[in-house]
Design goal:
By secondary structure, the chain is mostly beta strands. 11% of the residues lie in helices and 41% in strands. The protein has a single domain, classed as SH3 type barrels (Roll), CATH 2.30.30. Strands 4-3-2-1-5 form a five-stranded antiparallel β-sheet. Pfam families: DUF951.
Amino acid sequence: MKYIYEVGDIVQLKKKHPCGSTEWQILRVGADFKLKCTGCGHEIMVSRTMVEKNTKNLKKACN
């Protein structure tokens, strides 16, 4: 399934973060994504292909 990723959306990935959360807030979109863990606040930069491959669900931000 093809998702449209936007800043502020919450993406649920297949694997858990060590804190136990599977949900990440999108802070930056491009060739790389900047994600912030909703559980502990840890921020990471990952490639777009990794996010697209491991996305389980996407919650759109309320604007």
